[in-house]
Write a structure and sequence with these properties.
- The protein is mainly α and about 120 residues long.
- It has 4 helices and no strands.
- The chain folds into 2 domains: about 80 residues; about 40 residues.
């Protein structure tokens, strides 16, 4: 029972720190993600709270769930007008970004295959 109470307390403190970080971010003009990273570092094993990190599967699940919430929140807050403004540049950048990534990876694999063939 004590462990559950400590878990609730630490969770509440982290949520409170996140709310304070959000307020500070708006006032200071610092990206919110940077402040969240700082809060996470302070809560970690070598930080002030000293939360031990040994359950990687749970951390992965929580990270993916948080990312899904962030994306959902961003999508719900985006107005249709701003979506229309950014659609063409986003599609263009995504297309050229995928093309450039495929080209660089293809050139690297071709070089690696030729080098491997020369060795044998």
């Amino acid at each position: 029972m004590v462990t559950l109470n400590v878990l609730y307390l630490v969770g509440a403190l982290l949520i409170f720190a996140s709310i304070i970080a959000s307020t500070l971010s708006a006032r200071l003009g610092v990206p919110l993600l940077l402040l969240f990273l700082i809060v996470g570092m302070l809560a970690g094993e070598e930080g002030l709270l000293g939360i031990e990190f040994s359950q990687y599967n749970i951390a992965n699940f929580i990270g993916q769930a948080a990312l899904a919430c962030i994306l959902l929140d961003g999508g719900l807050r985006t107005s249709f007008q701003s979506f229309r403004v950014g659609l063409k540049p986003a599609v263009t950048l995504a297309t050229w970004g995928v093309f450039a990534t495929v080209m660089v990876l293809g050139l690297f694999v071709t070089w690696l295959d030729r080098r491997r063939s020369d060795v044998h």
